[in-house]
Each structure stands twice: as C-alpha cells, then as structure tokens.
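Customer escalation, tier 2.

The customer says the design service returned an amino acid string that "doesn't look like it belongs to this structure." They asked us to rerun it and document both sides in this ticket. The original structure tokens are below, unchanged.
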C-alpha cells in the first residue's frame, strides 16, 4: 500500500479486532512490525477517557487475511496453552482438562466445563 493511498482515502478499512486500548495498541504495533499498516478507532458508543472504553483495530481490506494470521500467531505466542486447547477440542477432548468427552458432550464429566452453550 502506498502512503498516497492512505492520504487520499483510497483504502477500504476493515475492523479485525476489538478490545481494550493496551491490547489493540499491542496488536497494531505487532502488525506494523510485520509490514501491515493499521489504524485504531474508538468503538461506537464509547468516548475517550471513559472507564472500560473499547477500541477497534483496522487494516486495509487487502491485508485482512494476513493481519488475522499474524494476530492468531501472536495470541498463541502470548498464550501457548491455547494451541494445546484447540488440539484437544479437535480430538473430542475437553479443551480445559484434556478428558475424552466425545462429539456430543454438553459438559466435561471430569472438570465440569460447559462444552455447548444452548439457548
């Protein structure tokens, strides 16, 4: 993306993540380090300086897939237990404790984690 595109407003921005200011800033810095231009805006209904304010991370439409991949990898780097949890869930095991639960279980019989939220 050329800087002139940004300046002239030719970029179609897409929201890729919402969160608190520190998390969104961390993700924006990480994307910049990976060559992806991003922007941050305040979430609708929030006003700057209010408690619990939410922010939205924006990237150019053409960068959405790459940004999502980088964000996912960054999250797993920060929380390595998440990868193991996903692997367990793919194997019909409880993502919290690893107990074999089968495909249709609604709750883990070992730790009590709700596996399906109904209603």
């Amino acid at each position: 993306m050329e800087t002139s595109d940004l300046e002239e407003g030719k970029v179609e921005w897409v929201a890729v993540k919402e969160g608190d200011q520190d998390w969104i800033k961390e993700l924006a810095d990480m994307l910049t380090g990976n060559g992806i231009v991003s922007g941050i805006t305040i979430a609708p209904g929030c006003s700057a300086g209010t408690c619990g304010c939410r922010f939205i991370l924006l990237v150019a439409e053409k960068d959405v897939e790459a940004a999502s991949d980088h964000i996912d990898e960054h999250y797993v780097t920060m929380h390595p237990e998440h990868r193991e949890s996903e692997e367990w869930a793919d194997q019909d095991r409880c993502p919290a404790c690893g107990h074999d639960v089968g495909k249709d279980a609604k709750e883990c019989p070992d730790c009590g984690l709700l596996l399906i939220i109904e209603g």
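Tier 2 assessment: The sequence is consistent with the input. The mean pLDDT is 86. Helices lie at 3-7, 21-33, 64-78, 81-90. Sent an explanation to the customer and offered a walkthrough call.
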